[in-house]
Design goal:
about 600 residues; Rossmann fold; 3 domains; 7 helices
């Protein structure tokens, strides 16, 4: 009893602002450490930070967040907010269920009562497994947490973002030499939320961040409702909490979090389709590019009322006004170039919010689809890969193993960069690279005509060589309309520093008879560890069905059932139409 009285007196005197406490959650006694500054004031923020696997609240508070110059308590004292370090059961966390989510919710409720915390400014972070719990909470309690800050931890099975979750501000901090949660897994996890938040897919980079040599702050934003996704990349740092003078983790977390609040009276709006930065590539007669209709959809809600309307704009041009869900419209007969698509939501109080994405419509006669192979360790936008175990979608960065772009350093060398993909188990169609899936920010629309695909391919680690198949497939059905198999004659030898010769320039010619969206797919051999390095891929349109032949272009869908003479007059027959090498040749 004397110890309790002494602790109370010290707390009142301001000597012992940090204390251990407990709470019963779902019938289980749970414990945590809490630090509340003196003279806290009313309606102040709360930060909940969760320890890593095998650690506890004391370790996180008194070891990971302290150095000779600064502590988490010092940050709290200056900014006047409360920090809670929870204890996981058996020094671990439930990162898939509700056990520890309910614990976090109970802590918030108690802190609101005990310290008059502002519910609109509650923040959450965690280290290692605590970072995994933080990602879990993004989907489970986004309405309770204003911003999230995982450190050296992410979902090992891949991040997800539930469709009904609001845009989430995220600061992720990670060392590039993390031996426990590899740095290569950070970008794929963040990509999920970059896309969900409607953030630009290209990051702004602040190098040598805060004077920390080699440190980089990557910024994707602003996205929907002004949120950002940030990655603080720490060079050559392992699995740890950074507390160096230039980059003190506690201060970085607070500086990020304090910008965000749940308190909103303006409506929420988010463009859900298409993805930001998507490229629609259409091959059609010169000057007559005909892009497929682009469906634009949005979600909208209001925290203190109702949505009166959602307006869609292409630049300043009003496309549509929707007064009830579903909120969607069509971008049709659009011209080439970049289109700035904006959705503006208006609520019953007349307040508005907007979300904006960029959509690019391209109409080339030739397109180098490998032009983005200029950076080591990425899967570029527009591309996706699969190795029988893991599917990767561009843009993904920071990849140090598996399917990815490799930079070659040997001299001589046949190419400087190449996209490496593989088939781990050798199962049919289980090793591939594809271009043209809309989910990966690019589509290819081909109109009837004759095309060539120029490519340079080699093997990565197949001394006896293994074949690669190229296939032109309809995006909707996956049906192959043309294919070619090539046996490489160059093998790099499993090291980017090896020397290797010039790759053979190959040409794949094919005809398209039906206008549609297509995917260019490359498949490894159906053998264990079948592989491929793609060094070049160029798609070119050689000729089209001439638009000057009356009705043929506009009635392309009927071309398989009818044929015409050179004057455009209907004729009998069912052979269809083909034009090769620029000549007006009709197959009758």
């Amino acid at each position: 009893m004397k110890n309790v009285i002494l602790s109370f007196l010290l707390l009142v005197a301001g000597i012992l602002p940090s204390m251990a406490d407990n709470i019963t959650v779902d019938g289980t006694n749970r414990t945590y450490n809490v630090y509340a500054p003196n003279n806290l004031g009313q309606n102040r923020p709360l930060l909940i930070f969760c320890h890593g696997y095998g650690q506890d609240a004391n370790w996180m508070q008194n070891t990971e967040f302290k150095n000779d110059n600064v502590s988490m308590e010092a940050v709290c004292d200056t900014a006047k907010f409360v920090v809670v370090f929870p204890n996981g059961i058996s020094n671990s966390w439930d990162i898939s269920g509700d056990r520890d989510i309910n614990f976090i919710k109970a802590i918030i409720d108690k802190m609101v009562t005990q310290y008059n915390i502002d519910r609109n400014r509650v923040y959450m972070g965690g280290f290692s497994m605590g970072g995994m719990l933080t990602y879990h909470a993004m989907n489970k309690i986004p309405d309770l947490i204003a911003a999230f800050c995982p450190v050296s931890g992410y979902p090992m099975g891949g991040a997800t973002a539930n469709a009904n979750v609001r845009p989430i501000p995220i600061l992720h901090i990670h060392g590039t030499s993390d031996e426990t949660c590899g740095f290569s897994g950070v970008q794929p996890a963040l990509n999920v939320w970059i896309n969900h938040n409607g953030c630009p897919t290209t990051d702004k980079v602040v190098s040598n961040y805060n004077g920390f040599n080699g440190a980089k702050m990557h910024i994707w934003g602003p996205g929907t409702n002004g949120v950002e996704v940030r990655l603080l990349e720490l060079p050559n740092k392992g699995h740890w909490i950074c507390k160096e003078p230039q980059v003190y983790t506690g201060k970085e977390i607070w500086n990020f979090c304090q910008r965000f609040s749940l308190e909103k009276t303006t409506p929420n709006v988010r463009i859900t389709s298409p993805n930001a930065g998507v490229k629609y590539i259409s091959y059609a007669p010169s000057g007559q590019a005909q892009f497929p209709d682009v469906t634009i959809t949005a979600s909208a809600d209001d925290p203190n009322g109702t949505i009166e309307k959602v307006e869609f704009f292409d630049g300043t041009n009003l496309l549509a006004t929707c007064t009830e869900a579903p909120y969607e419209t069509i971008l049709s007969e659009a011209k080439t170039g970049t289109h700035t698509i904006k959705a503006v939501a208006t609520d019953n109080d007349g307040e508005t919010s907007s979300a904006t994405i960029a959509v690019m419509l391209l109409a080339p006669s030739s397109q180098t689809l490998s032009s983005a192979f200029t950076t080591d360790g990425i899967v570029p936008a527009g591309w996706s890969t699969f190795d029988g175990s893991e599917q990767r979608s561009g843009l993904s960065k920071g990849l140090t193993s598996g399917c990815r772009v490799l930079q070659f350093t040997g001299s001589p060398r046949g190419v400087n960069y190449g996209l490496y993909f593989r088939n781990i188990e050798g199962k049919p169609r289980q090793g591939w690279a594809k271009y043209g899936n809309e989910a990966n920010s690019a589509t290819i629309n081909l109109y009837p005509g004759h095309y060539t695909l120029k490519y340079k391919i080699c093997n990565w680690n197949k001394p006896d060589f293994s074949p690669v198949e190229l296939s032109i497939e309809k995006r909707a059905s996956g049906e192959s309309v043309a294919s070619q198999t090539y046996m490489p004659n160059v093998n790099i030898g499993n090291s980017v520093s090896n020397c290797f010769g010039t790759l053979e320039q190959k040409i794949f010619e094919f005809d398209i008879t039906e206008p549609a969206d297509y995917v260019i797919a490359l498949y490894t051999a159906d053998t264990e560890w079948g592989d491929c390095v793609l060094g070049q891929l160029i798609l070119a349109a050689n000729s089209y069905i001439e638009t000057g032949i009356e009705d043929i272009y506009n009635e392309a869908a009927d071309a398989r059932n009818r044929c015409f003479d050179l004057q455009g007059r209907p004729s009998s027959g069912t052979k269809g139409i083909t034009i090769r090498n620029g000549k007006k040749t009709i197959r009758l």
